[in-house]
Write a structure and sequence with these properties.
By secondary structure, the chain is an alpha+beta fold. The protein has one domain (2-81). The protein contains 1 helix and 4 strands; from the N terminus they run αββββ. The chain has a 4-stranded antiparallel sheet, with no helix packed on it. The model has no long low-confidence stretch (mean pLDDT 84).
């Protein structure tokens, strides 16, 4: 029975330590904002995909029927794919 108590105590301490450690992590921090001019409708941009090697972010503007391509290294909009009906669920494949 004594061995069981020691195991339970060690387990409880580990859970407590892990819980405290998880709460001490810093929150997300805004690194940059990139303006996207020319949008005609307000809407959400909740469908994204990333080109890690090229440091580009593809953002689906569903309400505007566009896919915006942002260069994260340069911090600017580099291209807009227009006339895309309700773009979402994107994937980037390098050639």
């Amino acid at each position: 029975m004594n061995k069981w108590r020691v195991t339970a105590l060690v387990t409880a301490l580990l859970i407590l330590i892990i819980g405290v450690w998880a709460q001490n992590k810093a929150p997300l921090v805004l690194k940059q904002t990139i303006p996207v001019p020319g949008l005609t409708k307000e809407g959400d941009f909740d469908h994204l995909t990333m080109d890690l090697q090229g440091q580009r972010l593809f953002v689906a503007g569903e309400d505007n029927s566009v896919v915006e391509i942002l260069d994260l290294g340069a911090g600017k909009l580099v291209h807009t794919i227009t006339d895309v009906k309700a773009p979402h669920s994107m994937v980037y494949r390098a050639i």
